């Protein structure tokens, strides 16, 4: 590789040398014009600079192999994006629990390349341990995060560098209980819920690995654990796509989010094909006066299919406000 670069430099230098040596005086200029524009440069310098004829992808999205017409090849760095902090706290920065209320799923592109770490932005698992509940649709509602077992008082760390957008324990944090939300420069937000203590205030900058609070059992929680969410522009996806909570490792430095990953039915471990199929599930929110046969009729399905989809019996009492699958 080095040898080839050297040859390229030599080739450039020699090309310049020839051009300089043939800096024409007035007589030569006249001669050139007589030869209908074919100058001595073009006649004498062989074109031995290789020409790129094709590129091949590598495991690294930002490195390609370039093939040349002289049967050589080279790795080419396509330019790695870096995390830019400048707009971190300008877009949709407010003190709502969820700040991106005006952004809907349809506003987002089909694929988002998410730079998670770079040379100046690190990662640290918020906690490591056993997962007690996954990102899923459970008991008639969305479980938008991953639950990781911990003991009350265990340190909870910032996953990425960021800025504290929410740090409170009020009525409006609801089931989250004692909650911290961090904004990150790449458009991600991370949520740390059910805490027993908070160490950071709104507006504070934190570094990955910094202890931001202590684990607890506040809010809608049975047994101490961390409820950890990741959201991109407000849309949640399975945190296990990014983090191996057993080992505390980040799975990728760059992660490409597909739009269907934002479905509550799409989770880590599925192929993209399976995820897409799962994301097509349709749900129905039960209203007062609804019956299973009525819901089946409205959605062009049958009671037995509804029972199978939701793991219920025709006699199961429907609870208003709960959501069931209809497809
Ligand atoms: Zn949870």
Q: What can you tell me about this protein's structure?
A:
- This protein is an alpha+beta fold and 327 residues long.
- It folds into three domains: 2-77, no CATH class; 105-273, Glucose Permease (Domain IIA) (Distorted Sandwich), CATH 2.70.70; 283-325, LysM domain (Membrane-bound Lytic Murein Transglycosylase D, Chain A), CATH 3.10.350.10.
- The protein is 17% helix and 28% strand.
- The strands form seven sheets. Strands 5, 8, 10, 11, 12, 14, 16 and 17 form an eight-stranded antiparallel beta sheet that branches.
- Strand 18 and strand 19 form a beta hairpin.
- It is globular.
- The two termini are 56 Å apart.
- Mean pLDDT is 86; it is low at 5-38.
- Bound molecules: zinc ion.
**Straight-line N-to-C gap:** 56 Å
Sketch the major β-sheet.
Answer: 8 strands, antiparallel
Give the mean pLDDT. 86
The rough form would be described as globular
Q: What CATH architecture of the largest domain do you see?
A: Distorted Sandwich
CATH homologous superfamily of the largest domain?
A: Glucose Permease (Domain IIA)
What count of helical segments does DSSP give?
6
Low-confidence stretches: 5-38
Catalogue the ligands. zinc ion
Class based on secondary structure composition and strand pairing? alpha+beta
Helix content: 10-25%
Number of self-contained structural domains:
3
Q: Which percent range describes the beta-strand content? A: 25-35%
Spatial extent as radius of gyration: 29 Å
**The CATH top-level class label of the largest domain:** Mainly Beta
Number of distinct beta strands: 22
**N to C succession of SSEs:** HHHEEEEEEEEEEEEEEEEEEEEHEHHE
CATH topology heading of the largest domain: Glucose Permease (Domain IIA)
């Amino acid at each position: 590789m080095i040898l080839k670069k050297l040859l390229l430099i030599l080739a450039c230098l020699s090309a310049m040398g020839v051009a300089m040596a043939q800096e024409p005086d007035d007589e030569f200029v006249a001669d050139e014009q007589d030869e209908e524009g074919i100058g001595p440069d073009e006649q004498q310098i062989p074109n031995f600079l290789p020409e790129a004829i094709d590129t091949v992808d590598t495991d690294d999205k930002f490195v390609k192999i370039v093939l040349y017409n002289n049967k050589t090849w080279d790795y080419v760095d396509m330019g790695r994006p870096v995390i830019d902090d400048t707009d971190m706290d300008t877009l949709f920065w407010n003190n709502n629990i969820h700040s991106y209320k005006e952004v809907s799923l349809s506003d987002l592109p089909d694929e988002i390349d998410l730079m998670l770490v770079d040379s100046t932005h690190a990662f640290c698992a918020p906690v490591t341990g056993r997962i007690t509940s996954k990102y899923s649709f459970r008991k008639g509602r969305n479980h938008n995060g991953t639950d990781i077992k911990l003991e009350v008082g265990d340190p909870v760390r910032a996953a990425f560098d960021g800025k504290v957008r929410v740090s409170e324990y009020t009525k409006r944090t609801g089931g989250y209980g004692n909650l911290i939300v961090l904004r990150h420069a790449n458009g991600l937000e991370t949520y740390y819920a059910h805490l027993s203590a908070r160490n950071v205030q709104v507006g504070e900058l934190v570094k990955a690995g910094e202890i931001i609070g202590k684990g607890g059992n506040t809010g809608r929680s049975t047994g101490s654990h961390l409820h950890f969410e990741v959201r991109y522009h407000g849309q949640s996806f399975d945190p296990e796509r990014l983090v191996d909570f057993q080992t505390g490792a980040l799975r990728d430095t760059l992660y490409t989010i597909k739009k269907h990953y934002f479905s509550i039915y799409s989770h880590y471990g599925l192929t993209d094909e399976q995820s897409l199929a799962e994301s097509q599930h349709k749900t129905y929110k039960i209203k007062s006066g609804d019956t299973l046969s009525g819901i089946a009729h409205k959605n062009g399905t049958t009671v037995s299919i509804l029972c199978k989809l939701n793991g219920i019996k025709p006699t199961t009492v429907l609870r208003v406000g709960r959501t069931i699958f209809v497809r």
